[in-house]
Specification:
The complex is a heterodimer. By secondary structure, chain A is mostly beta strands. Helices cover about 10% and strands about 25% of the residues of chain A. A four-stranded antiparallel β-sheet of chain A has the order 3-2-5-6, with no helix packed on it. The radius of gyration of chain A is 25 Å and the shape is elongated. In chain B, about 40% of the residues are buried. The chains are: A mainly beta, B mainly alpha.
C-alpha cells in the first residue's frame, strides 16, 4: 500500500507547526506575579503630603492595619512609610491633626492607632497613601464593613517607581 | 403632610454624627434634608392637594417653594464643597467612588432644569411645558431617593424611608391628578385643561 504521507500532508503539517506558536496562544509556563494595587478612586482626597510619623494619631481607639508587599514576588517590604487619614471623632479629613504616618515593620506589616473613624460623605471609610518614592505612589480608600468597627485593614502591593 | 416633611429634619438633629462635624458641614446636610421635605410639599401644592391650600394659592406657593428648593440644593452642595472640595468635584465630574453621589448630581441637574423650564412656562406650548417640567421633576425625585437611601449620614433610617416613600407618592399623585399624560391639547382644540 502506498504511503498516505503526501507532500500536501507535509505542507499542511509544516504550516500548522509554524502558525500555531505564532498565534501566541501557546506560551511557556510562568509563575503569575502578584499584581500591583491600583490607586482607588477618591483615595487621594484631602491628602496632605509629609504628615509626621507618629506613635498614635490623636487620642486613639481605632486601629488602621495592613501590609506592604512588592509586586511580582510578593516579598514583604519593611521600613516603608504609610500615611493615614480619615474623618474621625476628633476632626475632619482636611484637618492637619487628622493625618499621621507610620513605618512597616520587618514583616512588612503596619499598625497605626487613630481616633474612631465615623461616616463622612455617606460612608465610613479611611484613606491611606504610600508616597515613599521608591515605589509608585498608591492611594487607597477602603470602606468599613460597619460604622461600629474599631479596625480597618488595607493592603498595598507596590511596583517600582 | 407637613409633619412628614418636618419630622425627618427634627429627628436628624439627634444624630450622633453631629458632634463630630463642623457647623458648615452640618448646615449642608440639613439643607439637603430640608430640600427633600420641600419635594414632598411641592407636588401637592401644584395640584391643590395640600389640605387647607387651594389650587390658586397652591400654585403661587409652588413657584416660591421651587425657588427655595433650588436654594436649598445650592446650599447643600456649596456647604459640602467647602467641607471637602475634592469629594464634591469627584461627584460633579461623575467619577465619585460613591454611586449615590452620582444620583445626587443627576437630581441636582434635574432640579435646576425643572426650575429653568419653569422660567419659560408662558412661552411654551402647554404640552411641551407640562411634559418637560413633569419629566424633570420625576427624574429629580427618583434620583433624590436613590441618592439618600444608601447614604450613611445624619438622617435617621426609618424617617428617611418614610420621607422617600412620601416624595415618590406625592409626585405620582400630582401626575395622576393633573393627567399629564393626557396633555395633548393640539388634538382636541376645544379641550380645556385645568
Amino acid at each position: 500500500m502506498t504511503s498516505d504521507f503526501t507532500r500536501r500532508t507535509a505542507i499542511a503539517l509544516g504550516g500548522a507547526a509554524v502558525l500555531t506558536p505564532a498565534t501566541g496562544l501557546i506560551r511557556p509556563a510562568a509563575a503569575a506575579g502578584l499584581a500591583p494595587t491600583p490607586t482607588m478612586r477618591g483615595g487621594s482626597n484631602n491628602y496632605r503630603p509629609g504628615a509626621p510619623i507618629v506613635e498614635r494619631i490623636g487620642g486613639g481607639g481605632f486601629w488602621m492595619t495592613g501590609t506592604v508587599r512588592r509586586a511580582g514576588d510578593g516579598a514583604p517590604l519593611a521600613g516603608q512609610r504609610i500615611q493615614v487619614w480619615a474623618h474621625t471623632t476628633e476632626g475632619h479629613e482636611r484637618d492637619e491633626r487628622s493625618h499621621g504616618a507610620t513605618l512597616t515593620d520587618a514583616n512588612g506589616e503596619f499598625r497605626l492607632e487613630m481616633p474612631q473613624i465615623v461616616p463622612a460623605f455617606g460612608q465610613a471609610h479611611g484613606h491611606l497613601a504610600y508616597d515613599g518614592g521608591d515605589f509608585r505612589t498608591v492611594f487607597l480608600r477602603p470602606l468599613m464593613d460597619s460604622p461600629n468597627d474599631t479596625t480597618l485593614a488595607a493592603h498595598f502591593v507596590l511596583e517600582p517607581a | 403632610m407637613l409633619a412628614l416633611a418636618l419630622v425627618p429634619l427634627i429627628v436628624a438633629g439627634f444624630s450622633p454624627l453631629l458632634q463630630w462635624r463642623q457647623p458648615l458641614y452640618i448646615l449642608a446636610g440639613f439643607a439637603g434634608i430640608a430640600a427633600m421635605g420641600v419635594m414632598l410639599i411641592q407636588p401637592l401644592l401644584a395640584v391643590g392637594a395640600l389640605p387647607g391650600v387651594g389650587p390658586g394659592p397652591g400654585r403661587r406657593l409652588h413657584r416660591a417653594m421651587g425657588g427655595i428648593l433650588v436654594l436649598a440644593v445650592l446650599l447643600h452642595i456649596g456647604g459640602l464643597w467647602i467641607t471637602s472640595p475634592p469629594d464634591v468635584i469627584d461627584v460633579l465630574l461623575f467619577r465619585s467612588p460613591t454611586p449615590f453621589g452620582i444620583w445626587g448630581a443627576l437630581a441636582m441637574w434635574a432640579v435646576f432644569g425643572a426650575a429653568i423650564w419653569a422660567m419659560f412656562r408662558r412661552r411654551l406650548r402647554l404640552r411641551l411645558w407640562r411634559w418637560g417640567h413633569t419629566g424633570l421633576v420625576a427624574v429629580a425625585v427618583v434620583a433624590t431617593v436613590l441618592h439618600v437611601i444608601p447614604v450613611d449620614g445624619t438622617m435617621e433610617v426609618v424617617t428617611k424611608w418614610a420621607l422617600s416613600a412620601g416624595v415618590l407618592s406625592a409626585t405620582a399623585l400630582a401626575i395622576y391628578r393633573r393627567r399629564v399624560w393626557a396633555s395633548v391639547a393640539w388634538r382636541w382644540p376645544g379641550l380645556s385643561i385645568r
